[in-house]
Design goal:
Chain lengths: ~650, ~675
């Protein structure tokens, strides 16, 4: 409970500093340098005045953002009183814990703490929240302490202990110093320095607690949350800059840091669960063998090789960032889940479909809404979710929504509407497939020729001007006034490498747009009004979808089609599994329950698991050839008959 | 000479002209033959009478009046309809032909004049080691092509013969097919897939073939770019109708060269005719990819296909990159991945630690992140503020730049720190004006942070620029690609420099490296040289790391994504129409285009096609599509066979698939494209 009291003090402090942040919001620059200063001052035991002034808003550092997200999400959870989600989250954490501990020798102690932590949860919301944090941090703490004592990597440990000692000192100094600014800084840093020391751990809870409340005072909801697994509350992966400052106490280079990080981690965790089965087995084997069977050199060499290998794995693992995100469902509820840095949107979607028992469909999408700009975008399946979410600002009101959107793959269900310009005619499935193959499976992707008059919003004004736009693989162009539509005279409006395409919402009111069918092009990092955001308005919804999909094709190319095929495969296999039917029956049976596109696909899925691209390619090739050979047969028949008539 | 039996069997005299340098005195040989003698017998008699011991197997009889070969040796003269008035020529089936390749080089090659063009092209491609010969064909250049060329030759006083690659000793002389696609059977890569040099395992193969290693490099490597003057000389603005006229020259694939009036040693163009390139594989296709790249390059330089200025600059950057890589003797090894580096560094770190060395010092040494620190000038565009650069002390570390009022304050807090991850880096350089600027567009939540840096000299610029480029991709200067990047930038600056200071001795290979030779003459005219160079440099950044073959493939891809790619134009008159239209034939569709405005009117896709046929009597092509759409047209700018073959050819090509290994269904091709007989 002493920690709690500490927290309360810090809490006040945090609020203040946060206010200052707000005050200094418009100020640019300077904050990182101040962090550097802090580092130096930590080093030299000086008070850390400058720190308090660092405006959070200015940070471009992703890790910092992500940490901030966590705070807000928790805060939101508190506001809404959704203990359920926290439980789920805890369950997640626990399961990870268990997985890990079951691999190694199993650390019962930790599991106990974990369970304790979960048990605590339902109690009272506020305290349970902090309880969790404390439990987590204390558990990790418990891990690290014995490890220092137990583990045999002496020199590493020694080194580590030195490092962590000095970290301890620094942290304690900063905590004990108890000046307002320190805490601000501390709270940013803690995420990365979690396991290092008691003091640090305390400051985690301090700062997280305090920032929760301060957040509560300033803004309400934000949906992303960053919490690391307890084991990973170490320096490594939390984003270099933070780590830098914490560690620059000892050495200044990034790799050195990393090095220390993993040695620390190794020292902490190997005796417990982090050593994978193989390694521990091997080590045990060697250990079990009578020493006369192994020369000392051999032993040493083996050990060393092992250590290196393990350490390298640690490096990799430790660099994985994890985010806890809040996903809004279409029915106004929300779910909290953990995503790791490596996960694609597809993987997260699969996860969500599993969890929400919503049935499998191609149309489930993750939609990002940027409420401040009134725009939204469906994440593409291949995109990295964490990367995208890290673009959100600290006080962002952006939301992540899990919902069914037919626009997502409409392009592939009725390609003729998007790839063939103005025609709307229905198309036979066979021809659709041919069309898709033709467009996406050649050596280069054919960007649909979309062109026409669109409205372009003037910079900074609520007025819109007509222009004739054209889409090409190299970007969007327009025809300058008084010129003909010749390629060489086109003016480049935008190249697509750096921008994403969004749907604008209700721009008729917001920007006096001529219609509500607006699309927006902006750099994903831009979150506020800016001259670098381009607004276009179409005359009808069909044109809008054609443009958006055309831009998607130009931007993502073949990847888009691969996403679609992957999604198809997933939904199929899901049905497969639920119905437990054989693959031959599958395609027939599933087609009834899944929208039209399914029937399209059922042809393809006949080839079973090997239904990969090349297979599909060959298939359609043969389709094409059959079409043509039929055509040709008829042609030659006629020709022959012609010939006959000519010869007479 | 004449015996009684001869008269009895109604024999007659047949005069045969012998096309052989040794048979000078008696070029016309008179044979006494009868109508039931088969062609083989005639040739036997002929050879006996000539009485020169040599291999006559390549010789065959050519009937001049009828313009056809008498190749079926078992047919009798009666069956062929040969009578006493027939003028026959006894001549080799394989003759020399000058082929102008897509890379504007000419090779002299012995080619079958008696086989159908489809097969002759197949043999040519085997000799040149180009897979998928069905995509290529021979184009007879129209008159103005030669006119233009002669003018050029006169100006340059450069004999045509000089750049001709002679492959006279080709094995095709025996009529047997050349090395039957060794690659397909053994599946061993013939070329290095990174830079397109022949793999060592194939050297033996090359020794069998007229393609010596050096010749191969002429085919597989991009040649030094043309001088802008030469380019301007070749450049000819063409309307759609002009382009349509050029397409009349495609030879008929189902007839032989001789039958189409091609003379020995005449020049024809070998081109990729059908724009669907199947299975381009760097392992086997170094020549094919290079020739394709060259065809694309010339199409763009001479504006045979239209593109926007941005696209032109991307093409220019790729060309620059490719020509530079092709020239450089040692091709850089790009295989080192940054991740590997980091892991290795970590590994060696760990090793050091485990060995219990002087931990701290060593650590610091090894892991010291390279850093740049220098005085640079900075300018941030703001409204109402004049464009003035202010000097600061800049420190580049990791992926960010911090700047300070002066060097002494470096330990303190910087004026600002910029994280360059994900930012846009744009060169702002004018070598002649000694201006070395870097423009940074750094995305932040509320827009773009626009910053201009100014360096004092090239070396400084190259180092900072390279660091910025790497940082924008999230890499630090510790990455292995940093040094190459610096050199890259320096060499590019030199290219620009050449214009302003031509007296500077530059290596001979760099002679033609000036920006104008990478863009079309019209584009070059529109911009100043230094502007052009700056913009090419800007585009070049994105491709600077690309290996040679990949860059060529990228070029081809960019070419393929142009809207007008693959369209072959013909001037046609649609049935029921009162004016001429342009018909564009592409790999997947037919487009009717207004001849005057160039605006597409209707598109028909091959996938919807039900049948097509040709009425040879009125030379009309009729095509029927789904939903009872049918069209009919006559071709005005070329024979209707040419258009018919184009459509049939595309349909034939769409039937190809990877599993039918390398064998071509030649019969199907001829069925789809064949003529009236």
């Amino acid at each position: 409970m002493e920690q709690l009291s500490d927290e309360e003090i810090d809490h006040g402090a945090e609020e203040d500093s946060d206010k200052e942040d707000q005050d200094l919001d418009k100020m640019f620059g300077a904050w990182l340098g101040e962090l550097d200063k802090l580092t130096q001052s930590l080093d030299s035991d000086k008070p850390m005045e400058p720190v308090k002034r660092s405006p959070l808003r200015q940070e471009t550092n992703m890790a910092n953002f992500s940490y901030r997200f966590s705070i807000y999400n928790l805060n939101e959870a508190l506001n809404q009183g959704e203990t359920v989600d926290l439980d789920a989250l805890m369950a997640d954490l626990c399961s990870i814990e268990q997985e890990l501990s079951s691999i190694g020798s199993g650390n019962s102690k930790r599991q106990i703490t974990e369970t304790k932590a979960t048990q605590k949860l339902p109690a009272s919301r506020h305290t349970s929240k902090h309880g969790t944090f404390k439990a987590l941090s204390s558990s990790s703490n418990q891990i690290s302490k014995p490890s220092h004592a137990n583990y045999s990597l002496d020199d590493i440990t020694a080194q580590l202990e030195q490092a962590s000692l000095s970290m301890d000192e620094a942290a304690q100094q900063s905590v004990l110093g108890d000046t307002k600014p320190v805490v601000t800084n501390q709270h940013r840093r803690t995420a990365s320095a979690g396991t290092v020391s008691d003091a640090e751990v305390r400051s985690i809870s301090n700062s997280s607690r305090s920032s929760i409340t301060s957040a509560a005072s300033s803004m309400d909801s934000l949906d992303i949350d960053k919490v690391t697994r307890p084991q990973e509350l170490d320096l490594t992966h939390q984003g270099q800059p933070i780590t830098e400052h914490a560690i620059s106490l000892r050495c200044s280079s990034k790799q050195a840091k990393r090095h220390i990080d993993f040695t620390e981690e190794q020292a902490e965790l190997t005796p417990h669960s982090y050593l994978d089965r193989e390694t521990s087995l091997l080590l045990r084997n060697i250990a079990g063998k009578p020493s006369h069977l192994l020369t000392k050199e051999e032993q040493a060499a083996k050990l060393k090789a092992e250590k290196i290998r393990v350490a390298l794995e640690k490096i990799k693992e430790a660099q994985v960032k994890k985010l806890v995100i809040r996903v809004h469902m279409s029915d106004d509820s929300s779910k909290t889940m953990m995503v790791d840095e490596r996960q694609t949107v597809r993987q997260v979607l699969d996860n969500l479909m599993d969890k929400s028992h919503c049935g499998y469909s191609l149309d489930w999408s993750l939609v990002e809404t940027i409420s401040e700009l009134q725009m939204e975008r469906i994440f593409e399946d291949h995109e990295n979710l964490v990367e995208n979410l890290l673009n959100w600002t600290r006080d962002s009101q952006n939301k992540l929504i899990f919902m069914e959107r037919i626009e997502k793959y409409a392009l592939f269900k009725n390609p003729q509407n998007y790839l063939l310009g103005k025609e709307t005619a229905e198309m036979a499935d066979r021809n659709k497939e041919v069309l898709l193959e033709e467009c996406f499976c050649g050596s280069s992707v054919t960007v649909p020729e979309i062109e026409g008059v669109l409205w372009l919003k003037d910079d900074g004004k609520k007025s819109w001007k007509k222009r004739y736009f054209l889409l090409r693989a190299s970007g969007i162009y327009y025809v300058p006034k008084g010129k003909a539509k010749v390629s060489r005279d086109l003016v480049c409006f935008l190249q697509l490498d750096h921008v994403n395409v969004y749907y604008g919402q209700d721009y008729r009111n917001k920007y006096k747009a001529p219609t509500d069918y607006c699309l927006v092009l902006k750099h994903p990092q831009i979150q506020k009004k800016s001259q670098y955001i381009k607004y276009l308005c179409c005359d009808d919804v069909r044109t809008l979808h054609q443009w958006v999909n055309g831009i998607r094709i130009a931007k993502y190319g073949k990847q888009l089609y691969m996403n679609y095929q992957e999604a198809l495969k997933r939904t199929e296999s899901a049905y497969d599994w639920t119905s437990l039917s054989s693959s031959s029956i599958k395609s027939g049976s599933s087609s009834s329950s899944i929208p039209e596109s399914q029937s399209n696909h059922s042809n393809q899925s006949d080839s079973g698991v090997s239904d990969t691209q090349p297979a599909g390619h060959i298939r359609s090739q043969s389709i094409v050839s059959s079409i043509f050979s039929e055509a040709w047969k008829r042609g030659t028949q006629l020709e022959e008959s012609n010939k006959v008539t000519h010869s007479f | 000479m004449l015996s009684a039996s001869d008269f009895a069997s109604a024999s007659w005299e047949l005069v045969v002209h012998v096309d052989h340098p040794a048979v000078e005195e008696q070029k016309d040989i008179t044979l006494r033959v009868s109508g039931d003698l088969h062609v083989g017998g005639v040739m036997l008699k002929l050879v006996e009478q000539i009485n020169i011991p040599q291999d006559w197997s390549d010789f065959a009889l050519w009937w001049e009046q009828k313009h056809c070969w008498l190749l079926k040796t078992h047919w009798t003269l009666d069956k062929y309809g040969v009578q006493a008035d027939a003028k026959l020529l006894f001549t080799p089936q394989h003759k020399m032909l000058r082929l102008r390749l897509p890379n504007v080089k000419t090779v002299r090659l012995r080619v079958s004049f008696s086989a159908v063009v489809f097969k002759a092209v197949g043999d040519i491609c085997k000799t040149l080691n180009i897979r998928r010969s069905e995509e290529l064909s021979l184009l007879k250049p129209s008159g103005d092509y030669f006119k233009k060329k002669k003018k050029k030759d006169k100006n340059n006083k450069e004999p045509v013969i000089e750049d001709i690659l002679n492959l006279e000793c080709s094995p095709t002389i025996t009529g047997s097919p050349v090395s039957p696609g060794l690659y397909s059977k053994t599946m061993t890569p013939v070329y290095d897939p990174i830079n397109g040099t022949p793999a060592s395992s194939t050297m033996t193969w090359f020794s069998d073939s007229p393609l010596t290693e050096q010749n191969c490099s002429i085919l597989a490597f991009s040649q030094a770019p043309q001088s802008p003057e030469a380019l301007a000389d070749m450049y000819q603005p063409r309307s759609l109708v002009d382009k349509a006229k050029l397409n009349a020259g495609w030879l008929d694939s189902s007839r032989s060269l001789m039958e189409q009036g091609i003379q020995e040693d005449e020049q024809v163009l070998l081109r990729f005719k059908y724009y669907t390139f199947f299975d381009l594989n760097p392992k086997y296709d170094a020549v094919r990819i290079n020739q394709l790249y060259e065809q694309a390059r010339w199409a763009i330089l001479l504006e045979e296909i239209d593109c926007t200025e941005e696209e032109m600059l991307i093409f220019a950057a790729l060309q620059y990159h490719i020509s530079k890589l092709s020239l450089s003797a040692e091709i850089q090894d790009f295989t080192n991945e940054s991740e590997v580096d980091e892991v290795e560094a970590a590994l060696s770190n760990l090793e050091v630690t485990l060995e219990g060395g002087k931990a701290d010092n060593t650590l610091e040494d090894i892991t010291d992140i390279p850093k740049l620190a220098d005085n640079l000038r900075l300018f941030r565009p703001k409204k109402l503020i004049l464009k003035t650069f202010k000097q600061y002390w800049f420190v580049f570390k990791d992926t960010s730049i911090a700047y300070f009022k002066n060097k002494e304050l470096e330990q303190g807090e910087p004026v600002e720190k910029l994280n360059l991850r994900g930012c846009e880096v744009v060169p702002d350089v004018n070598v002649a004006g000694r201006k070395f600027g870097i423009k940074l567009l750094i995305p932040v939540a509320d827009g773009m942070n626009e910053v201009y840096l100014r360096c004092d000299h090239e070396n400084q610029y190259a180092r900072w620029m390279a660091a910025c480029i790497l940082a924008s991709k999230g890499k630090t200067m510790a990455d292995s690609s940093y040094q190459p990047e610096v050199l890259n930038i320096l060499s590019f600056l030199r290219m620009k420099n050449r214009n302003s200071a031509s007296q500077v001795a530059s290596s001979p290979e760099n002679m033609d490296m000036n920006p104008e030779c990478f863009v079309s003459p019209r584009c070059a005219k529109k911009h100043k040289s230094k502007q052009l160079a700056a913009r090419i440099l800007e585009a070049h950044q994105n491709v600077a790391q690309m290996p040679l073959v990949e860059a060529k493939l990228r070029f081809i891809q960019a070419w393929q994504s142009l809207p007008e790619f693959g369209l072959t134009y013909y001037l046609v008159r649609f049935k029921g129409s009162k004016k001429d239209d342009i018909l564009g034939v592409s790999y997947n569709r037919l487009i009717r285009i207004d001849a005057a405005t160039g605006i597409p009117i209707t598109t028909w896709r091959f996938t919807n096609m039900k049948q097509w046929n040709v009425n040879w009597e009125i030379r009309q092509l009729a095509i029927e599509f789904d939903q009872n759409v049918s069209i009919a047209f006559t071709c005005l700018s070329a024979d209707c066979k040419v258009v018919h073959e184009y459509i049939g050819g595309y349909i034939f090509l769409s039937t190809r698939s990877k599993d039918q290994n390398e064998t071509l269904d030649e019969d199907l091709f001829h069925k789809l494209t064949g003529g009236q007989d």
